[in-house]
Amino acid sequence: MCRQFYGAGPWDDLALAWTAQHPLESAPRATESLLRASLSLHPAIANVTLRRPMRAFGGRALSALIDPARVSPDTLEGMERRLGGALYTSMHWVWTEALRLLALTGWRAATMRKHTESTLVQQEQWMLRLGGALQAA
User: Fold this and answer.
1) Cα Rg for the chain, rounded, in angstroms?
2) Strand partners, 54
3) Is the model more confident about 98 or about 136?
4) Least enclosed by CB within 10 Å: which of 36, 66, 85, 137?
5) What is the dihedral of CA 75, 80, 81, 87, to 10 degrees?
6) 38 close to 45: Cβ distance less than 8 angstroms
7) How many CA atoms lie within 13 A of 114 on its CB side?
8) Could you report the per-residue pLDDT of 87-104, keeping only the tens digit for each?
């Protein structure tokens, strides 16, 4: 999805790290051949999955229902600048922006290595607030 909508970025490094950690050669033989055969198809698979209208979505594409622009790195950083600390502490924002908060903190943890620990602590805190609100409901 990231390559389809945002082009090159740190997700490319993530893909390299994933393949280094999980080499195709270590997969069971039948799975390895399937994975090898599908590698060149990944862009087409992502395109169909994200952009093709589907009956399950009322004839709309998944990307029309969940707009990738709302979780682009620039958009997430803009949301954080605009809302400041309230983004992580306000129950309104934690409740209404939980998925984007998850995307933002994941983005921060992956791209700001010096701040990974504090980002994960911050993520845990807002997720506990969200969990407490769900439990109370």
Assistant:
1) 18
2) 60
3) 98
4) 137
5) 140
6) yes
7) 0
8) 999 999 999 999 999 999
For 54, which DSSP code?
Answer: B
What pLDDT, in 10s, does the model give residues 9-58? 888 888 888 889 899 999 998 899 999 999 999 999 999 999 999 999 99
Helix (H, G, I), strand (E, B) or coil at 60: strand
- Token readout for 70 is 């709302």
Amino acid of residue 66: I
C-alpha dihedral (88, 91, 94, 95), degrees to nearest 10:
180
Q: Do residues 37 and 30 touch, judged by C-beta distance below 8 A? A: no
The span from the CA of 100 to the CA of 104, in Å, is 6
Domains of the chain, residue spans: 2-65, 68-136
Q: How far apart are the first and last CA of the chain?
A: 34
- Give yes or no for a contact between 61 and 1, defined as CB atoms under 8 angstroms apart: no
**Could you tell me if 79 and 100 are in contact, meaning their C-beta atoms sit under 8 angstroms apart?**
yes
